[in-house]
Structures are given as C-alpha cells and as structure tokens.
C-alpha cells in the first residue's frame, strides 16, 4: 500500500507562522462568508483558495473540510472551526501568504 500524505507532525514554537499571516487568512475567509451566516460552505472555502491563487482549489477545499469540519455538517463554523482551516492553509503555503494575496 502506498501512502501519498505524510502524517501530521506537532508544530514547535519556532515553526509558528507570523501572526500577520494568520490574521490575513482569518480576514480572507471571513470575507468569503458572503451570506454572513457564520459558516463557510464548500463554495465559500473554494473561493478562498482561489483568492490564494491555489493551483488545486478543489483538492485543497476537500482536504480543508477533512481537517476542519469536525462535526461533519458540511460547513466550517467561523467561531469554532476557522482556526483549524487557517492552520491547514498555513501548512500548505508556508511563508508565501503575503505573496499569494497580491
């Protein structure tokens, strides 16, 4: 059996991304909540990855829901699960958030 994904490793203090990148991503995904219901749908998360100029927004959206949608309701709650979504995005694009948002 072949595994294509590495197991997630614990981040250490030195591996933490800059707070500015984290805050920019939180603002980005909150802006993607176009109907202001406090939840991010599949299309809204995919729009966020498109704004980040992802080459594979559909794949990234699928993985984001696997990581962040803990109650499996088909939405990422802005209050509870947004942190996990932003953490996933920071793992995907380490150190390139500001370049992607230009």
Any overview of this molecule?
The chain has 5 helices and 2 strands. The chain is globular and about 30 Å long. The protein has 102 residues and is mainly alpha-helical. Helix 2 (42-51) crosses helix 3 (57-68). The model has no long low-confidence stretch (mean pLDDT 86). It has a single domain (17-97), classed as EF-hand (Recoverin, domain 1, Orthogonal Bundle). It has helices spanning 19-32, 42-51, 57-68, 82-92, 97-100; strands at residues 39-40, 76-77. A two-stranded antiparallel ribbon has the order 1-2.
Domain count: the total is: 1
Unreliable runs:
none
N-to-C SSE string, H for helix and E for strand: HEHHEHH
CATH level-two architecture:
Orthogonal Bundle
CATH topology: Recoverin, domain 1
Structural class by SSE content: mainly alpha
Report the helical percentage.
Answer: 40-55%
Helical run tally: 5
Could you give the distance between the termini?
Answer: 41 Å
Numbering strands along the chain, what is their spatial order in the largest sheet?
A: 1-2
User: What is the CATH level 1 assignment?
Assistant: Mainly Alpha
Brief description of this entry?
With 102 residues, the chain is mainly α. 50% of the residues lie in helices and 4% in strands. Helix 1 (19-32) crosses helix 4 (82-92).
Topology (SSEs and partners):
Layout: H1 19-32, E1 39-40, H2 42-51, H3 57-68, E2 76-77, H4 82-92, H5 97-100
Antiparallel strand pairs: 1-2
Helix pairs in contact: 1-4, 2-3, 3-4
């Amino acid at each position: 059996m072949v595994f294509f994904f590495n197991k997630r490793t614990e981040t250490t203090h030195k591996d933490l991304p800059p707070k500015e990148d984290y805050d920019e991503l939180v603002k980005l995904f909150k802006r993607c909540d176009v109907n202001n219901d406090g939840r991010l749908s599949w299309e809204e998360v995919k729009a966020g990855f498109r704004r980040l100029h992802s080459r594979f927004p559909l794949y990234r959206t699928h993985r984001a829901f696997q990581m962040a949608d803990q109650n499996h309701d088909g939405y990422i709650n802005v209050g509870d699960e947004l942190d996990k979504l932003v953490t996933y995005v920071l793992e995907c694009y380490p150190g390139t958030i500001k370049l992607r948002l230009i």
